[in-house]
């Protein structure tokens, strides 16, 4: 009985303390390279050699800059080290800028997204993205265009290409309706993101790959299917399979560039969530050496 009463008293005191306000804690993140500089240098060099070598590319699309940081799931510094690049879907936040040095230590490229689907605002949005790339020394840009290709869109596309031409040593990616890209400009982009998140079966993904290679003349090695980590897709027999696992087979059989993964930050730090799925997908594409 005394124990019950004591617990109750402590509970009241705790509530009173909460009413009085909580002092903010100045949390500091200690970078891994400060623990053992020599071992970290060897590890980082291994990452550099791996990412510069012949392997399937793995990109993560990250919904950065939330209204507030809740946990490491909102921090790009916590992405797997073996990831080749992260595509930021929103403008950089102060927290993102703090994390950029950590990603550079791991030789993970960081790309910004320019949403150009509205021809009326396309150049304005691209200019803002290019300014952000310059000010924060980001590694490239994803130009997104969805929807039909109108006369207004066709008129603005050459100017987008001209402005992209001012970049040097940057990765250029196109995402969306490839008809937007003029025939003379298709070689400008290093990678074409192929959205496979809405495909119900593997035949739809393969047909889209054939359309890009056959109709637009885009080499398979420049095509990166965009896959939902938690998604499913029907295989050749109509059986539901995890989308990353099944599409990985298409990537390997068609010699595609690799895979990109959407909605990485959702459910990121659940033990069975997207962090584990992302690590598994990277290992599936690029098995570790024995």
Uncertain ranges: 1-20
Annotated CATH topology: TIM Barrel
C-alpha geometry? globular
CATH 4th-level superfamily? Glycosidases
Q: How many structural domains are formed by the residues? A: 1
Report strand %: 15-25%
Helix content: 25-40%
Count helical runs.
8
In angstroms, what separates the terminal alpha carbons? 60 Å
CATH class: Alpha Beta
What does the average pLDDT come to? 87
Order of helices and strands: HHEEHEHEHEEHEEEHEH
> What does the largest sheet look like?
8 strands, parallel, barrel
CATH architecture call: Alpha-Beta Barrel
Task: Specify Rg, calculated over alpha carbons.
Answer: 22 Å
The tally of beta strands, per DSSP, is: 10
How do the strands and helices of this protein lay out in sequence?
Blueprint: H1 2-19, H2 37-52, E1 57-62, E2 85-88, H3 94-105, E3 109-115, H4 122-136, E4 140-145, H5 151-164, E5 171-176, E6 191-195, H6 202-214, E7 223-228, E8 232-234, E9 240-242, H7 243-253, E10 258-262, H8 274-285
Helix pairs in contact: 4-5
Q: Any descriptors?
A:
290 residues, alpha/beta, TIM Barrel, 18% strand, disordered N terminus
């Amino acid at each position: 009985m005394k124990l019950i009463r004591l617990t109750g008293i402590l509970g009241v005191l705790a509530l009173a303390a909460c009413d009085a306000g909580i002092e903010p804690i100045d949390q500091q993140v200690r970078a891994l390279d400060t623990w053992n500089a020599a071992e970290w240098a060897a590890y980082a060099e291994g990452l550099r050699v791996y990412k510069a070598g012949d392997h399937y590319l793995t990109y993560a699309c990250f919904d950065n800059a939330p209204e507030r940081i809740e946990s490491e799931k909102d921090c790009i510094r916590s992405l797997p080290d073996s990831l080749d690049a992260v595509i930021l879907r929103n403008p950089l936040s102060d927290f993102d800028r703090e994390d950029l040095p950590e990603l550079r230590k791991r030789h993970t490229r960081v790309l910004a997204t320019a949403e150009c689907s509205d021809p009326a605002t396309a150049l304005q949005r691209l200019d803002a993205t290019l300014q952000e790339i310059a000010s924060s020394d980001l590694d490239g840009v994803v130009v997104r265009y969805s929807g039909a290709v109108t006369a207004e869109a066709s008129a603005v596309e050459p100017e987008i290409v001209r402005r992209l031409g001012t970049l040097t040593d940057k990765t250029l990616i196109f995402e969306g309706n490839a008809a937007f890209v003029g025939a003379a400009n298709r070689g400008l982009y290093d990678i074409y993101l192929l959205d496979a998140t809405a495909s119900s079966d593997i035949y739809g993904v393969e047909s889209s790959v054939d359309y890009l290679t056959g109709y637009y003349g885009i080499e398979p090695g420049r095509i990166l299917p965009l896959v939902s980590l938690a998604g499913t897709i029907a295989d050749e027999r109509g059986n539901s399979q995890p989308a990353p696992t099944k599409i990985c087979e298409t990537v390997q059989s068609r010699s595609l560039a690799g895979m990109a993964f959407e909605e990485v930050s959702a459910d990121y730090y659940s033990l069975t969530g997207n962090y584990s799925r992302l690590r598994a997908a990277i290992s599936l594409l690029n098995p570790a050496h024995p």
